[in-house]
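Q: What structure does this chain adopt?
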Amino acid sequence: MTAARLALFDLDHTLLPLDSDYQWADFLARTGRAGDPDEARARNEDLMARYNRGELTAEQSAEFMLGLLAAHTPFDLAAWHEEYMAEVIRPSISLAAVRLVQDHLHAGDLCAVVTATNHFVTAPIARAFGVPHLIATVPEYVAGRYTGRIAGTPSFKEGKVVRVHEWLRDMGLDLADFSETFFYSDSINDVPLLDVVSRPVATNPSPALRDIAQTRGWQVLELFAHMEDAKS
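A:
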């Protein structure tokens, strides 16, 4: 028996109030693990600016982000990721985001995180939220090392739609099999997947996505408003 509903969650600036890819690169730079730290920070900032404008390609991101994985052994990367989780990610996980995920899980919905950020960075984060499935960009791994290249279709823009269909097909399912399909996202880059679900939810939306949501009558959800109130 399949779940009656499907709930998909973007990760960065949706379940998290930060970008896990950007923060991982920043973490490596400031801990001396990303080559020239000033150059790494400059490239990181440029990629984020292009992403926010909707101009970044998966290949442009991979050249830098997956190159950081290729430069080190999996043993070292795993140890550093544990530090990163403790220092950066876990303190940023909000109760509101956890409750959103738990509400869907407790309802028996089929749940997955669908993110452009690579699988190495995001797998422990998805586990921290208790989400059982992860659709992420897959970094190629050959002979015990990351190569710096993408394996398969990147989970980015239209690629997210492709990857979700592939994932469901592998389970013998289709979007039409669910009574409701949710996708929570903050980004204009996710409009392709928001367009194909029955319940698109603009979550902590960027200004560009907020405009689209208002025009199309999509639900708008502010998960982190209480965090901003606490700072003021």
